[in-house]
Amino acid sequence: MPTPTLGLIGSGMIGGTLARLAVTAGLDVVLANSRDPHTLAGLVTELGGRARADTPAAAAEAGDLVVAAIPLKAYGRLPADVLAGKTVIDTTNYYPERDGHIGALDGDELTSSELVQRHLPGAHVVKAFNNLGFHQLFTLARPVGTSDRTALPIAGDDANAKQQATELLDVLGYDTVDIGTLADSWRSGPNTALYGFPYLGRPPTGLDADELQHWAAQSPGVPVSARRVKELAEAAVRGPAGASYS
Questions:
Q1: Out of 3.30.365.10, 3.30.70.940, 3.40.50.720, 3.40.50.2300, which CATH number does the structure's domain 70-234 have?
Q2: Rounded to an integer, what distance in angstroms lies between the CA atom of residue 77 and that of residue 79?
């Protein structure tokens, strides 16, 4: 049976972390960014023989599953024609100061993943990997059956695509909690209790904003159970769209 291939469009902090988890789990990866594939030579060398760099369209074509690990403002560059029929895992969050204001999101007419789905009408979008930092995403991964395994939320409109995403997360080291449709995906986004802090643990007291940011970037994180993820998702209250980006 051929080794599954994960296509990664976006190879920054989240995309690079997912690539590391994927090759460790025995998957092949095809990496792409918004620049020339040669700019990923260092990461490809670090990852080893299971990884190669190519264009976004080639990564989309090669991937059995494809992860869009890009800023939301770049969603229009995703190759809709190549991604038709594929499961696309969307990691985006809406940060207006970075992405520019988007009326449909500011007015809660759509979630960011619904916006991505509209751009990719032939694909099956699943929201995942958007609610914790890249460092915690790496350090909290655990094998199947581990007592302190962490759960992550997913959301999507297609049951088969959500099953594919669940299987990928399992291989990469995570349990999953289905929190609903793409319209429900705000429950794991910025300004909710499920975003960031449950996976960080309790910060030291007395930190200023810069110190807190530095601590959060370095914290190994704490496991979050599927039960806790479900509780936080169900109790979520929708606040202002978007969040400050730092």
A1: 3.40.50.720
A2: 6
